[in-house]
Amino acid sequence: MEPIFAPPAAFAAQAHVSGMEAYRELWARAADHPDQFWGDLARQELCWFTPFKTVLDWQPPFAKWFPEGELNACYNCLDRHLAEGRGEKLAIAFEGEPGDERLITYRELHRLVVRFASVLRARGYHPGDRAIIYMPMIPEAVVAMLACARLGITHSVVFGGFSAEALKARIEDLGAQLVITADGGWRRGKRIPLKATVNEALEDVTVVRDCIVYRRTGGDVNMIESRDHWWHELEAAQATDDCPAVPLPAEHPLFVLYTSGTTGKPKGILHTTGGYLLHTTMTMKWVFDLKENDVYWCTADIGWVTGHSYIVYGPLSAGATSVIYEGAPDFPGFDRWWSLIAKYKVNTFYTSPTAIRALIKHGDAFPKAHDLSSLRLLGSVGEPINPAAWHWYHEVIGGGRCPIVDTWWQTETGGILIAPMPGAVPLKPGSGTLPMPGILAEVVDVHGQPVEANREGFLVIKRPWPGMLRTLWGDPERYQEAYWSRMPGIYFTGDAARRDGDGYFWVLGRVDDVMNVSGHRLSTMEVESALVHHPAVAEAAVVGKPHEITGQAVVCFVSLKAGHWHHEELGKELRAWVAKEIGSFARPEEIRFTESLPKTRSGKIMRRLLRELVTSNTVSGDVTTLEDLGVITRLAAQNDDEA
Asked: Rounded CA gap, 56 and 34, in Å?
């Protein structure tokens, strides 16, 4: 049985929410009087140009939060902090992969955003226009987002690893008139040629009027006359220091973020301004227990929703100091992240379980070579964290003193929905623990009825929340079908979960990641957790394969820790290990050893690609988010060899 970790007394004593009684009181207030709860917070936490009267207009499945109110996300992230005396506070501590450093105060970030926004205004952009942002992890990516928000230009950030074809599809679906990019970015010592990809994507696209290019790497680029402009040249010619934030309706579209699936065109998740900004601001305070002098670092890329909510809008609205790092976690050495924590005295560190497991693989010596004593809180995002990784993270990185906030949420939810408040909620390794105030989460069966404790079911959200997606860009019918059709009026997350006797939620992964083996429902996470408990295993990904007798068979992809090597006996040992840890019905049919697993650059394992591989021996789904396409090529070759 996993131990329970109570909040450290010293941490709880200074926490915004201290003790379970305070958590329960806050949650009950939100549950009993949701309009008053969210309305009071919106008035306290955000600056409004025009006050709202209505908190929520709910016409299922379409929501409008604070509909009469007017505000501006950029104003809330920057201008108000100058008025509140935070102008000289550090907003961004940036480190490029080559080692270049920039320390940017709120006053300086405000100046950069105002000047770039004035350039966009001078070029005729105004509320309702759309921009694609395709940039490396540099401060100008944040500047571009906030400048768009300042003018009411709806932005869509496209991850810098996407192909020209994927970029083009997003430009055309959004109808973007503007593309903001860079000549390139740095990744593992190499220039990533972003502008060349943009040129290819725009070859026969007519809707784009301007392409603005920031010079980052100094590489040669092909600039198209009349369409393409260097950022620094436009700023020198057109920028002013006078560009006020535009008052916008609370439901004005702030951004569209595309999620890709196995088939069909990507879904454009639409988030609006007021509710989204309130949700991200409050979860920064509730989940990360943000203090005025904290240095906070989320390792995500701004191309993903984690970067939007917990690098840009949430931290800056809450007045945080954030670290932004451009490059790979293992370049030039496996200690790059730990050296940055020591250098910038990071207090709060938020990353993915996959990244944690990848770094475990290289042993404890790398983190132990650096002073990590500044850390007071650790976070996990992207997928459930298995207990073995949780314990390593807690002991080796956090020194046994840092609570871990294991956060569950989605691109669609806008911000965190289930996570511990670290000064209040005792932790169970592997559990996201309890819902945020105002979040009515439940685990239900196919008929929408709550299941008993410790039974698996579908995770649903039974009441609207401020950060929720409003629709899919240009496709309200698909929005209704994808999220609200199974159980009318209830948001279907697509995740499987169970709830234990204490009410703690254990997210088991996507519904597709739950296997049915001889009538037993078995989550891929459960098998992966068992595998990484084995002393030789660094990472594991598990998928189900069709089987004529058992319905599905368990196939495991395993990478080993340094000093271990794969052989037939180890495969047998691991199969027996899983059977012992879970039960004989869970014994894997196959163990496949691999040096690495297919992951996105944000660290998520692409299990659906592995599922395709073991089912059809090919991969035909969208692979544009993969960091290393060679992983799939090698696994496919291995598949052919074993066939």
From this structure: 9
